[in-house]
Amino acid sequence: MKQAIAILTGGGPAPGMNTVVGSVAKTFLTKGYRVIGLHEGYTGLFKAEARMEDIDYPLADDIFNRGGSYLQMSRFKPTDKDFEENFNLKFFTDNNIKLLVTVGGDDTASTANRIAKFLEAKKYPIANIHVPKTIDNDLPLPGETPTFGYESAKEGGAVIGRAVYCDARTSGNWFVLAAMGRSAGHLAFGIGMACHYPMIVIPEMFNKTTITVDKIVNLVISSIIKRKLMGMDYGAAIVSEGVFHELSDEEIKKTGVHFTYDDHGHPELGKVSKAHVFNDILERRLKEIGLKVKSRPVEIGYEVRCQTPVAYDLEYCSNLGMGVYKLYSEGKTGCMVYINHDGQVGQLYLKDLQDPTTGKIPPRLVDVNSDKVQMVVNNILCYVTPEDYEAAKAYVANPEAYDFRKILAW
Predict the structure, then answer these.
(1) 136, 313, 388, 403: the active-site residue
(2) Which of 32, 48, 157, 306 could be cross-linked to 68 through a Cys-Cys bond (beta carbons 3.0 to 4.6 Å apart)?
(3) Pick the residue with more confidence: 113 or 72?
(4) Where do the domains of the chain lie, and which CATH numbers do they carry?
(5) Is 403 a catalytic residue?
């Protein structure tokens, strides 16, 4: 029987999923392998009949530059009981599977390792290679290599961000945008920087103080006041959803938001519009201090996850897909593939990235002390400084409460 590989996609989508799948398929097909695509993530491996289909060359060629994921995704995470009672070993033995390729985040990668160890114990060892993705860009890949999907999501977000900023200028309004980013502010900062937003709020900025709702709102008001002093009655602020993760339970209650949690214990932020929450709080605060400003909320999240990948990710994800075969042909397994800035294929093992105590992969955060960030803070953002106090009293009685650097204790 012809040797086969199986490929699945897990978690949430990112631009470039189909590029990886199509490139993996094309490469292995030309080497004589059968390529089986699994729909619904890991779900099919834990029931009697997997929802599967053969991926041939025309199909791979048809999907490689599309947004979304042709292979339907799932966040299903098998339990120990699932392994004991429901594992579909026949799928691997009947189809002569030699390699399991997974595309997803760290949860998808850790489950792939569990499956490989389980199969080894069942005397049917296979290789497994993972392709890491996230539009959050928060996986600590070497050399600051971006995670695939980030550049495309940033471009899609910047398209929205530029249009919103044009609307603000045209209508004399303010907009509050919220961007995805579970624990790091890369996407919000990248969009805000690209659009020259006068205020960007990301969790990493609170490196010297605790994040509170008041501080987040005061940063936006600081920008509103500064722009008024500059003779500009419009603007936009972008806030990373990651600030929610840093808020205490008491602070969360202040927002009035009640979160549900996914199977991995992560708050389901996608079910709540952070932009509406921030904007509602901002409007109430502006009314309290008597500042007449119209503001509107805009959410940037699901709008960018399935967009058509830009050229960067089409090239990058093609290399990642072909890199899977390179690592497999070299006997590598239980690893993640990445491409460094010199174009070389490398492998990473989960144990190299995981915290030895918790087993979690610590997120790659935005370096707020870098020149890249500090230049934006010092030259693009608009906010109240001590030199503005006297003039700012025309708008607020206590301008020092809106001093950007005092709020952040910088």
Answers:
(1) 136
(2) 306
(3) 72
(4) 4-148+309-353 (3.40.50.450), 153-305+380-408 (3.40.50.460)
(5) no
